[in-house]
Amino acid sequence: MKRILAMALLAFGAAGAAQACPDWRLEAAASYNLSGDQLRKAQGADVIAGGENYIWNCPGINPQSDQGAGYFTSNPDFRFFISDLERYQLVVSVISQCDSALLINTQSASWYYDDDDNGNLDPRIVLTRPISGQIDVWVGTYDGEYCDARLMLETFPR
Predict the structure, then answer these.
(1) Which residues contact residue 83 at a Cβ distance below 8 angstroms, ignoring those fewer than 6 apart?
(2) Contact at 8 Å (CB) between 154 and 43?
(3) Comparing C-alpha atoms, which of 149, 153, 1 is closest to residue 89?
(4) How far is it, in rounded angstroms, from Cα 94 to Cα 102?
(5) Of 9, 127, 132, 41, which Cα lies nearest the Cα of 82?
(6) Which end of the chain is least crowded, N or C, by CB within 10 Å?
(7) How far is 86 from 108, CA to CA, in rounded Å?
(8) pLDDT digit string, tens, across residues 21-52
(9) Residues whose CB falls within 8 Å of the CB of residue 85, separated by 6 or more in sequence, listed in order
(10) 84 Cβ contact list (under 8 Å, min separation 6)
(11) What's the pLDDT score for residue 19?
């Protein structure tokens, strides 16, 4: 009986661990409707960077960009519905009080990750040919700690 119970707990624990990953299907902490034109003037939002899910333990996430360490929440920190984006490049960056990391899932179901491209141990991702629609954003940290951060979005003509 103990063996059956132990196997059931192990199976449940493994299933729970597999689900503990960033997931664009989950509800975001905040959602915004914006346009490419509105983002010509940089827009920002405060967030607590960090999370409990180590990105490389998540088999369904294969970023098209950097390959560094990072810990993120399961739910997106932000969900953006952005229209009229095709004429622009979209720059997504973070300014934080720690070594932050950035994870994005775009309308085309592509994953992007960055750790330090904004300088000062902060991330920055430039989407050179984004398409209008849903973009989910997670602001995590390199080492699993938590800190205050600010997410910034801005567009530039192509």
Answers:
(1) 33, 34, 35, 36, 132
(2) yes
(3) 153
(4) 7
(5) 132
(6) N
(7) 13
(8) 999 999 999 999 999 999 999 999 999 999 99
(9) 35, 36, 130, 131, 132, 133, 155
(10) 35, 36, 37, 132
(11) 58
